[in-house]
Specification:
heterodimer, A: alpha/beta, Rossmann fold, five-stranded parallel sheet, two-stranded antiparallel sheet, 41% helix, 11% strand, B: alpha/beta, 2 domains, seven-stranded mixed sheet, six-stranded mixed sheet, 21% strand, globular
Chain lengths: 287, 327
């Protein structure tokens, strides 16, 4: 039983969904009054690829046993996760605007037992890869067909636990594990290569025994193709280094570290929505 | 002191009892549980023999996961496995787990609310010659403030067996604290055990000793000798530190008006604090917290260290006599 996939192949349709998700994230953060803008918006294309093409999942049956497991490690970008989930039908879109408010299921960082469809609570960086690897180990030992996908930030590779988990996934030959890294080159205190250099990043993963793919993190087709490629790699976990622009699509946010941890004001949100509406119109005009 | 017959303790209680480290009871129980439950997994961090998980490994290599010296990853991997419908035992020395992976226990395990059962072996001073760096005297304190966490501290190998079986059957995170040193097995298969219900091993009128882990038997020995000095001491085995048995604490606060907590742990944050919190809010009474007084241990034999830090029967006796003004 693997027919529950909500699979959209039209790149144009996917781009429109990504645009919608960006707009939702802007509005959610505006209403919440706090939260992480740049990373959430920069990940819209990756989450669109995952939730509308790559993942086997069923928004009406979030606990479906045969679902692919999706682990978000850098929980602070959860606005994009929530927006993608609402768009996919996990919960009504109105609920997006309860983000970070008292009594909400949409906690400021994801909470597993609050919202069906959330596989792991996260927030403190560096913990997700271990959880994803544990899940993939079960799937491998029990010969399950489901796979494990994880999204991580680049900055959280400063955490030692990430590398403990990278060794582990390689030791157990977790070919059913695909990790997407949001390589946006930014962390709270500045550029990753200034704060704590990660390069040569690819070589590090290769040395740990991983299969490495680079993609343009805003090219949905490339993201989907890379995920497909990872399925064909046996006995080795795959890392997809997705090169992204934080705040992508909203020029006044793009690549500025100051947008890592703050929400747009009402005026900035209005401006952002205006820009995204223009982008939407131009996508619609594409062939 | 009047021994509670309903506890079915070993006889003769103060005779030459068989000895074993409590980690043995854990390891044997785990290997048996593996037979009954095909969804039980074990994760360890390069200490399989000394935590006794190698017994499980031999029988169920497919469900045994070696993560190497990486306690943070161990907790995360265990959480991932547990979220797939498995019960996971996660075993290491208590100085490293929860000592080194508290954040992972907090978020990946407790906040996720998945059934990962941490086993911390080599607790307390009785680790002995390895010295202070390896003597966990803070682990209970670290975990007691975590929501969803249950904390168990068995008094001997037999109780460790029961504890292990009991936590395997509950759906929440848990912590089992065991010791390395061989200690008398003074409980029996017939001794009752229920999570959260402390065992009154002996009744008494003048003072009530609330002890945990290796200190329970030392407290019984102390109470037996105090009898000769006309001091009647009750001995309560607090095998569950969280949730603490409030009822029995209040009962003895009313009955004796003087309580002494005894543990191989810092006096702040552990059993003593837990008892104190109950007394403060439910029935104020005098409590002497006995254990490690904001200090590290040192190298030495297990019994030599218990003696030096007043955590053997003589030390416990002197603390009680001081408290009663009878020295």
């Amino acid at each position: 039983m693997r027919d529950k996939k909500q699979k959209i192949n039209s790149v144009k349709k996917l781009k429109l969904i990504a645009n919608m998700i960006r707009q939702d994230v802007v509005k959610m953060l505006r209403d919440a009054g706090s939260g992480h803008s740049a990373g959430s918006i920069g990940l819209a294309d990756i989450f669109t690829a995952l939730y509308f093409n790559v993942l086997y999942h069923d928004p009406r049956d979030p606990e479906w046993n045969e679902r692919d497991r999706f682990v978000l490690s850098n929980g602070h970008v959860c606005p994009v996760l929530y927006a993608a989930m609402a768009e996919a039908g996990y919960f009504p879109k109105d609920e997006l605007f309860t983000l970070r408010k008292v009594g909400t299921r949409l906690q400021g960082h994801p909470h597993r037992t609050s919202l069906p469809g959330i596989e792991n609570s996260s927030g403190p960086l560096g913990q997700g890869l271990s959880i994803a690897a544990g899940m993939a180990l079960v799937a491998k030992k029990e010969m399950k067909r489901w796979r494990v996908y994880a999204v991580m930030s680049d900055g959280e590779h400063n955490e030692g636990q990430t590398w403990e988990a990278a060794m582990f996934a390689s030791k157990f030959r977790l070919g059913n594990l695909t990790v997407l890294i949001d390589r946006n080159n930014i962390q709270i205190d500045g550029y990753t290569e200034d704060v704590m250099p990660l390069e040569p990043f690819e070589e590090k993963y290769r040395a740990f025994g991983w299969h490495v793919i680079h993609v343009d993190g805003h090219n949905i087709k490339q993201i989907i193709d890379a995920c497909e490629e990872s399925k064909a790699i046996y006995e080795r976990p795959t890392v997809i280094i997705a090169h992204t622009i934080p705040g992508k699509g909203i020029p006044f946010m793009e690549s500025l570290t100051e947008w890592h941890g703050k929400p747009p004001t009402k005026e900035q949100a209005e401006k952002a929505i205006e820009i995204l509406e223009m982008e939407k119109n131009s996508i619609e005009e594409e062939q | 002191m009047k021994i509670n017959k309903n506890m079915n303790l070993a006889e003769p209680l103060f005779g030459d009892l068989e000895k074993a480290p409590s980690r043995d009871g854990f390891g044997n129980a785990l290997a048996e549980l593996g037979e009954k439950d095909p969804d039980l997994w074990v994760v360890t961090a390069d200490v399989s023999e000394s935590t006794r998980t190698h017994l499980f490994q031999k029988k169920f290599p497919e469900r045994f996961v070696q993560v190497g010296v990486a306690e943070q990853n161990m907790a995360g991997v265990a959480a991932g496995i547990a979220s797939c419908g498995k019960t996971v035992f996660c075993s290491a020395y208590c100085v490293f787990s929860p000592g080194r992976n508290w954040d992972q226990i907090r978020v990946s395990v407790c906040y996720n609310d998945v059934p990962v059962k941490f086993h911390g072996s080599h607790s307390g001073l009785t680790v002995g010659p390895d010295g202070a760096s390896h003597q966990a005297l803070e682990d209970i304190s670290l975990l007691r403030s975590l929501p969803n966490m249950i904390i168990l501290s068995p008094a001997d190998s037999e109780e460790a067996r029961k504890v292990t079986n009991a936590v395997a059957g509950i759906p929440t995170p848990a912590y089992i604290r065991t010791s390395r040193e061989k200690m008398p097995i003074f409980t029996t298969e017939k001794t009752p055990f229920e999570i959260g219900k402390a065992n009154v091993l002996a009744d008494g009128d003048d003072v009530a000793i609330f002890a945990t882990g290796t200190q329970v038997y030392q407290s019984l020995l102390a109470a037996e000798e105090l009898k000769k000095e006309r001091i009647s001491a009750a001995v309560v085995n607090v095998h569950t530190i969280k949730p603490i048995d409030e009822e029995v604490i209040v009962k003895y606060a009313k009955k004796t008006g003087l309580l002494v907590s005894v543990e191989e742990h810092q006096i702040s944050g552990g059993l003593g604090s837990a008892v104190s919190e109950v007394l403060t809010s439910k029935h104020p009474a005098r409590l002497i917290r006995h254990g490690m007084h904001d200090q590290f241990g040192e190298s030495g034999s297990a019994l030599g260290l218990l003696k030096k830090y007043n955590l053997d029967k003589d030390g416990i006796k002197s603390v009680i006599k001081d408290a009663l003004g009878k020295r």
